[in-house]
Every structure is written in C-alpha cells, then in structure tokens.
C-alpha cells in the first residue's frame, strides 16, 4: 500500500521563503494560530474552490463561492482563516498573499505567486454554521448488482488483520496483476485488488497501474485462493484500455482512480458478479467492509485467501491527514482491533450494504501503517460517489 506523509510549514510574516519544504501557510488575522481556534470556535474542513489553470494564473479562494457550494460546512461570518499550498513548491522563492475583507469579514484569499494552488479553512463560531437542505440520497438503479449468490459472513467476530471470507462471497472482487522487469533478467508481479462494476469494466486505484503495456496486465475474476487452481470459477482477462482519472496526481494521490476496460467481457454467474455503484454515501460511524489479499504488515507476504474486516467511517479526517479531501475521500479505522488495509490491498473496495445490495463506496488509496488503532492513522479511500459522472462517461462508451 502507498504511504503518505504529513506536511511541515514555516511562517515568516506575509511572505514565506521556501527552502525545500512541502507547504507554506498564511493566517488572517496574523495573531490567529491553529491551536487558538478552540472552545467556542472550530476549524472547518479544507476547501479548494479555485485552482490556477496555468502557471501564470493567480489562485483565489472566495468565501461566497464556498458558502454557495458547501453551505452546511462553513459559517456565515468566519472569525479567521488559514490558507496553505497544495501544489509542489519551488525552492528559494518568496511566496506571498493578500486578503479581501467586507465589513470586517474575510471575503477572499488571493495568492500573489502565479501558478500556486491554495486551499483554505475557516475558524467559525460553533453556533454560526450555515444550514442548508441536504438532498436525499440517490437510489440504486440496478436491482441485480451487489447481490452475491453465496452469502458473506460479516458478523462482529474477527481476528487481527481481518478474517477469511466465505469463498466467492464477494464475487465482484478481482485480482490485478502487472508483470514488470525488476532486476537483470528477472520479472516481478505487482498485485492489487479491484471491483467489477459491469461485465466490461474494473474500478481500481490509479497508483496500481505502472506501465502502459496492456499485454503485461491480467485481471482475474472468480478467484478466492490465489494458490489453488479454481479453474471451474476463474475467468482471466487482459485489457482493452486504461482510463486514469484526468486529474490523477501521482505526488499527492489526489483522484487516485482508474477504470480498466477488459479485452472481453466476463460471464456473470454465481462466482462472478458486479457491485453496485453508490447511491447514498456512508455516514460517520457507519460500519463498512474492507476486502483484499493484502498482508498483515508492511512488506509482509500477501494472503493466499481473500480476507475481510469490518471498520468504521470517521469524520474530521483532516486532523490526521493534511491533504485529506472530504468531498473526494473516505476515512476509516477500527479503534478496537486496529484492523486495516495493508500492502497488496490497494485498489480493493470499501463496501456497504444498502437495502440488501452491496455498494462499492470507496477504493483503497493510502495508509500510514497496517493498523488503525491507538496512534496509528486511519485508512484513506477514494470516495466513488464523487466520480460517478466520470465513471458513467467511460462506461457508456462501450454501450
């Protein structure tokens, strides 16, 4: 699994001189600090309402735009603001910014350095958040997806690192394998998980796909134990096309999503089925299921048999991960057992049952360690619902 590290920043008044550090930050008013927004006030999540289109554009984060788009997540009259960079920075450069105010309230942050993208959050009174009407969740259109013939066992009994799944009870889980040269005259196989979303397409993480040679990539459906033959259940396919998300960022792992089009459709049966694309999003504290063949510790051996575990969706994940984006990502952990995704689980689904159908709510993106309790950080999954328009645009090309 991919590791992701927190950023560090240093402040020097209104100008920030960068010396090989990953991020810089500005506060308004200048006396505001991260720790001073407490008690009767709270920090909002991070917003990124505007992005420079070229290296000559100047970023601007506007309160009115953010309130219009994310009304329930921000207050009407913030008491202060923090802005920080989210793009890679050049060294030995002075970074500066300015603020726009209206009747004493901050109305916009404006970068004075071309091409640099910022995100912003607000220090808000706990009683001052804007309330908006939340749209009801979209129903699941397909009545056949997400219904396994062989029922999974998802009781609360578990061992550390999860438990072995009932064979073929997650029939949309596929094994991704990519052959590459790793040493002189040697070949290695990179392994990830993935999810069948229809008979032609697999959803997985963009960071799983290393090369462009379609002949080196194999997708196996109907698999439970990697070391057994299982010839009566398995279907293996190569690829016809790879569709990485157009905004995929290999450095920050933003938009860590790819759709793989199979060279020939799989045959749907008792062992190979499709998961549902999201209707409703999982709420904080909801129980969800992670599956995969990943190891139990970093650099460990993969599991031969498919494993599963139950974890909990958490909110306020930006407390743990600086670049966490609530609109596009989901955070999960298990504070009791510490169960977690691990090496080899990248691209595997986060699943939730809704009206007797299983939904792929997330795609495994990055972790801190193979534990999520105590001082270990939660797992981060791509929020599939945020990408439905893009996913459907790819799928429709085949139909």
From TrEMBL:
The processes (GO biological process) annotated in the record are: proteolysis
Transmembrane feature ranges: none
Q: Sorted alphabetically, which CDD domains does this protein's record hold? A: Tryp_SPc
User: GO CC annotations?
Assistant: extracellular region
Gene3D superfamilies xrefs: Trypsin-like serine proteases
Record-given protein name: Peptidase S1 domain-containing protein
**What are the alphabetically sorted keywords of the record?**
Disulfide bond, Glycoprotein, Hydrolase, Protease, Secreted, Serine protease, Signal
Q: Which residues form the Peptidase S1 domain?
A: 159-396
């Amino acid at each position: 699994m991919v590791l992701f590290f927190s950023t560090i920043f240093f402040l020097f008044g209104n100008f920030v001189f960068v010396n090989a550090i990953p991020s810089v930050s500005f506060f308004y008013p200048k006396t505001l600090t991260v720790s001073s927004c407490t008690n009767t006030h709270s920090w909002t999540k991070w917003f990124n309402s505007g992005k420079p289109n070229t290296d000559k554009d100047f970023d601007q984060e506007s309160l009115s735009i953010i309130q219009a788009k994310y009304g329930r997540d921000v207050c009407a009259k913030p008491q202060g603001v923090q802005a920080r960079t989210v793009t890679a920075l050049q060294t030995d450069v002075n970074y500066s910014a300015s603020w726009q105010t209206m009747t004493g309230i901050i109305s916009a942050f404006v970068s004075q350095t071309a091409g640099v993208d910022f995100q912003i959050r607000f220090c808000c009174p706990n009683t001052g958040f804007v309330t908006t009407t939340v749209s009801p969740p979209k129903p699941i259109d397909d009545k056949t997806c997400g219904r396994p013939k062989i029922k999974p066992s998802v009781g609360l009994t578990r061992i550390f690192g999860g438990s072995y799944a009932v064979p073929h009870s997650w029939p949309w889980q596929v094994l991704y394998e990519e052959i590459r040269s790793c040493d002189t005259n040697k070949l290695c196989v990179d392994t990830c998980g993935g999810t069948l979303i229809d008979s032609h397409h697999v959803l997985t993480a963009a960071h799983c796909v290393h090369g462009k040679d379609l002949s080196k990539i194999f997708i196996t459906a109907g698999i439970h134990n990697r070391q057994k033959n299982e010839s009566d259940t398995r279907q293996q396919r190569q690829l016809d096309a790879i569709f990485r998300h157009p905004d995929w960022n290999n450095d920050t792992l933003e938009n860590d999503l790819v759709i793989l089009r199979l060279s020939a459709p799989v045959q749907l049966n008792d062992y190979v089925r499709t998961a549902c694309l999201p209707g409703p999003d999982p709420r904080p504290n909801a129980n969800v299921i992670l599956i995969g063949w990943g190891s139990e510790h970093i650099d460990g051996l993969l599991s031969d048999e498919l494993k599963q575990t139950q974890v909990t969706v958490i909110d306020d994940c930006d407390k743990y991960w600086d670049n966490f984006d609530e609109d596009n990502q989901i955070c999960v952990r298990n504070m009791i057992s510490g169960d977690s995704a691990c090496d080899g689980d990248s691209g595997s689904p986060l699943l939730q049952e809704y009206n007797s159908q299983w939904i792929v709510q997330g795609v495994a993106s990055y972790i801190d360690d193979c534990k999520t309790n105590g001082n270990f950080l939660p797992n981060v999954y791509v929020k599939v619902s945020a990408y439905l328009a893009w996913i459907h645009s790819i799928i429709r090309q085949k139909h």
